[in-house]
Amino acid sequence: MLTVRAPATSANLGSGFDVFGVALGTPADVVRVERAPETRISVTGAGSQYIPEDPEQNTVGAVADALDAPAHIKIDKGVRPSSGLGSSAASAAAAAVALNALYDRGLSRKELVPIAAEGEALVSGEAHADNVAPSLLGGFTVVTDDGVTQLDASIPVVACLPEMSVSTRDAREVVPDSAALEDVVDTVGNAATLTVGMTRDDPDLVGRGMEDAIVTPERTALIDGYDRVRDAALEAGATGVTVSGAGPGILAACHRPDQGAIAGAMIDAFDALGIESRAYQTRIGEGATLYRD
Ligand SMILES: Nc1ncnc2c1ncn2[C@@H]1O[C@H](COP(=O)(O)OP(=O)(O)OP(=O)(O)O)[C@@H](O)[C@H]1O
Ligand SMILES: N[C@@H](CCO)C(=O)O
């Protein structure tokens, strides 16, 4: 039996829609695999009641198919589904690493990115890799049609998850088909600022670069209380705030000493609207880890 822990991720970071992603220190999914004549899946943990065990409908089933690696696969969910924290991707990334090792396929982490992305195609209709890449590789990742670029980074963040769900499929429907040149120019500038910030591990530059005038405003309308939570986080010292992935999770970049106050302010702001939430005080962290039992 092999065990893999794969982290939650936050994609987009505002200015890098479908391009940027980061691995989070917590939460994470844990996947255990054992060789078997055909794939069988069981799911426990956060939100497991909403996750199908049918291999045709679970992201890990798509990965087992893509690697031609049938197995009994046990998923222990730490990342709640439809959270914006890359729940479906964490399972897919963990399964890709585990099955690659179980069947000695010899693929590198980068080569596993498109394989894990097959799972995303199953649930959201598109094989976007901006969550599976950081879950596999760790740090900050840039995904384009030409491949994946990875950079180690360790910016402190708060990921606040309200008790509501937004499916990636629905959140992709509100993305505009076109944008004004002025907004594109602003977003490119912000994306460049954020990237420099990551290379310097500078939370101020990263936060400044999280602004986006094209996709994020359309998506915030799907998250009750977004503006109040964002303002509360900024007042408590966040250097930047944006929707995590497709939402409803909200990501704040910050300096380490402000983390507790930001987490409290975000939870209180949701609470004032009658919405329960939890906040992960974490930092950009490592990719999937393989354990041999
Ligand atoms: N192993 C899995 N883990 C989580 N969700 C899964 C899994 N397999 C299938 N799903 C389905 O995927 C959907 C959740 O994926 P979705 O992309 O909407 O959320 P997410 O991964 O948390 O968000 P995001 O990609 O925005 O960060 C749910 O419908 C869920 O049933
Ligand atoms: N880039 C994708 C990620 C989903 O987590 C989106 O925002 O739709």
TrEMBL record:
Enzyme's top EC category: transferase
Pfam family, one: GHMP_kinases_C
Reaction it catalyzes: L-homoserine + ATP = O-phospho-L-homoserine + ADP + H(+)
Subcellular location: Cytoplasm
EC number: 2.7.1.39
Keyword set, alphabetical order: Amino-acid biosynthesis, ATP-binding, Cytoplasm, Kinase, Nucleotide-binding, Threonine biosynthesis, Transferase
Physiological role: Catalyzes the ATP-dependent phosphorylation of L-homoserine to L-homoserine phosphate.
Name this protein carries in UniProt: Homoserine kinase
Organism in which the protein naturally occurs: Haloterrigena turkmenica (strain ATCC 51198 / DSM 5511 / JCM 9101 / NCIMB 13204 / VKM B-1734 / 4k)
Gene expressing this chain: thrB
